[in-house]
Design brief:
Number of strands: 14
Largest sheet: 5 strands, mixed
Structural class: alpha+beta
Number of domains: 3
Radius of gyration: 24 Å
Order of helices and strands: HHHEEHEHEHEEEHEEEHEHEEEH
CATH class of the largest domain: Alpha Beta
Helix content: 40-55%
Shape: elongated
CATH topology of the largest domain: D-Maltodextrin-Binding Protein, domain 2
Strand content: 15-25%
Number of helices: 10
CATH architecture of the largest domain: 3-Layer(aba) Sandwich
Distance between the termini: 61 Å
CATH superfamily of the largest domain: Periplasmic binding protein-like II
């Protein structure tokens, strides 16, 4: 392919990338400001120029072919390189400015991150924030998101990261539920209680509790299983039983007495705990708008951590 042909095909590559990311021509058309038919024609032109089929189209879904998977990876690298190039000038601007796209899990975004964003926007009037709230793991390199928050034991390979705060899981119930069913003094007492567990993996109802060198695992059961922490919070507040919750989700209810922590002298070892990390592609430089947001979160959530349960 000649240089002129390569330059001509760049718009089609970007369009193909958006279709592959979003899984539909209509979603890509809305993001790109084009009609679905125009998006389809651009992808078809790219396929003709490459002489391979990139996307298998059915009435229900789109699926990347083997060449399409390879093309997707290369187009992602190309677009990311272009985005990095566009940000070079910002690295030399003294005052942070521009838009930052940051993704975060729903409960963390609502309970922790949103309040931080309000303060950040007041402090930095030239920086805009697009908050992307989703419980799926965003790939910042592939999806063009600047920063992502992920709760994990350690940052994934291929991404740079800074730790924001530790995230523990706690067991909670209402005073009314405990008054009706009796106190919970030992982990084995959970066996006779209704427990609200996660239910995403087979062993999510295997609750492990540690006290010093003593580790106890109990297999709990209950009437309500939900893979969203705020739903489990509402279930616990409705006297449905003992819920496992991230500490930042339970904090307010514990503070106002709506919930009480169960087995507080035991450490609850959940499948989902660790640290909240802010992650980003490992670039040669971090432009000012990213750097000030990362520093602001570390500053704010460090204080948040100091005041945690």
């Amino acid at each position: 392919m000649s240089t002129n042909e390569f330059l001509d095909v760049l718009p089609e590559m970007v369009t193909f990338l958006r279709v592959a990311e979003l899984g539909s021509f209509s979603s890509a058309s809305r993001q790109l400001g084009l009609t679905p038919s125009a998006v389809s024609r651009q992808v078809t032109r790219l396929e003709k120029k490459l002489a391979v089929q990139l996307i298998q189209r059915t009435t229900r879904q789109l699926r990347l072919t083997e060449p399409g998977i390879e093309a997707f990876a290369r187009c992602s690298e190309l677009v990311r390189a272009a985005q990095d190039t566009m940000q070079i000038a910002q690295a030399f601007v003294k005052e942070p400015r521009g838009r930052v796209r940051i993704g975060a899990p729903k409960a963390f975004a609502r309970q922790v991150l949103h309040a931080q964003m309000l303060g950040f926007l007041r402090r930095y009037p030239l920086v805009d924030v697009q908050l992307i709230v989703t419980d799926r793991d965003i790939d910042p390199i592939r999806e063009g998101v600047d920063l992502v928050i992920r709760i994990t034991r350690e940052p994934p390979v291929g991404l740079a990261g800074r730790s924001l705060m530790k995230v523990n899981q706690v067991l909670c119930a209402t005073p009314a539920y405990l008054a009706a069913t009796g106190p919970i003094n030992e982990p084995q007492d959970l066996l006779s209680r209704s427990c609200l567990s996660l239910g995403e993996q087979e062993r999510d109802n295997h609750w492990r509790l540690v006290q010093g060198s003593n580790m106890v695992e109990v297999v709990v059961s209950g009437r309500y299983v939900a893979n969203h922490s705020e739903i489990r919070l509402e279930g616990a507040l409705a006297d449905l039983g003992v819920a496992c919750l991230p500490d930042f989700v339970a904090r307010q209810a514990l503070a106002d007495g709506s919930l009480v922590q169960v087995l507080a002298d035991w450490e609850f070892r959940a499948n989902y705990h660790g640290f909240a990390y802010v992650l980003y592609p490992p670039n040669r430089f971090v432009v000012p708008k990213y750097r000030v947001l990362i520093d602001y979160l570390i500053e704010g959530l460090g204080a948040h951590e100091a005041n945690k349960l």
